[in-house]
Write a structure and sequence with these properties.
Elements lengths: L12 E2 L6 E2 H5 L3 E6 L6 H19 L2 E7 L3 H15 L7 E3 L4 H5 L14 E6 L5 E7 L7 H16 L2 E2 L10 E3 L6 H7 L5 E4 L2 E4 L5
Parallel strand pairs: 3-4, 4-5
Antiparallel strand pairs: 1-2, 3-6, 6-7, 8-9, 9-11, 10-11
Helix pairs in contact: 2-3
Bound molecules: benzoic acid.
The site of benzoic acid has 8 residues, from helix 2.
């Protein structure tokens, strides 16, 4: 089953390095990032998990829980965690699901048979507190993810949920935003964007980031 934006993230119960995870219950009122890696004791995955552990305070600041998954079992993950901590100079501070029965991989369509029959690709699912899938990203096994980009997408989702804006190409925190084309009422525009805006075209109106 492929997962579409806006659909409810499939719920599951699975073992992890932090004990049994009932996914929706575990998410609670937070956002969540569920990301898969192909295999334990592999170089790119080792660096990715180290980077996410170091970025955990940034995810916490945004009320986001992170959780990794691969088709190796929890015992294998536990053996690997020591290597991650030693080589990446960090403490593993989030759970890794042991998905040897491929329950999660199947629910989230993380195995792409033309890439590998057995290994999960590098999938990312960003899930909101209503358990809706808000963004999905898929990378091949050979390309490590840029987790600053994942934080940037979360920033954009949280900003655009709260204000009538969208974020333009290469937007970063503090950068100008675009006003959504559906907002045309001059009174509402004044009220929502007291710092004003520049209309480059009737459909392309730039405004300073509203929450800064
Ligand atoms: C890695 O994480 O290094 C990796 C995993 C599977 C295939 C290629 C690289």
């Amino acid at each position: 089953m492929s997962i579409r934006l806006g659909s409810i993230a499939p719920d599951f119960t699975q073992e992890s390095t932090h004990g049994t995870i009932r996914f929706h219950e575990w998410i609670g009122g937070s956002w969540a990032v569920l990301f898969s890696h192909p295999k334990d004791f592999t170089p790119v995955c080792t660096t990715e998990l180290g980077v996410v552990a170091k970025l955990k305070p940034e995810f916490d600041k945004r009320n986001v829980k992170v959780i990794a998954v691969s088709v190796d079992d929890v015992k294998s993950h536990q053996g690997w965690v020591g290597d991650i901590e030693e080589t990446q100079k960090t403490k593993m501070n989030f759970p890794i699901l042991g998905d040897a029965d491929r329950k999660v991989a199947g629910l989230y369509d993380m195995i792409h048979p033309d890439a590998s029959d057995t290994l999960t690709v590098r999938s990312v699912f960003i899930i909101d507190p209503n358990k809706k899938v808000r963004a999905t990203i898929t990378y091949p096994a050979s390309t490590g993810r840029h987790f600053d980009e994942i934080l940037r997408v979360i920033d954009s989702l949280q900003l655009t949920d709260a204000h009538s804006v969208a974020t333009p190409a290469n937007w970063q925190q503090g950068g100008d935003c675009v006003i959504v084309p559906s907002l045309q009422d001059p009174e509402l525009l004044k009220q929502k964007f007291p710092k004003g805006y520049t209309a480059l075209r009737p459909y392309l109106r730039m405004t300073p980031q509203p929450d800064k």
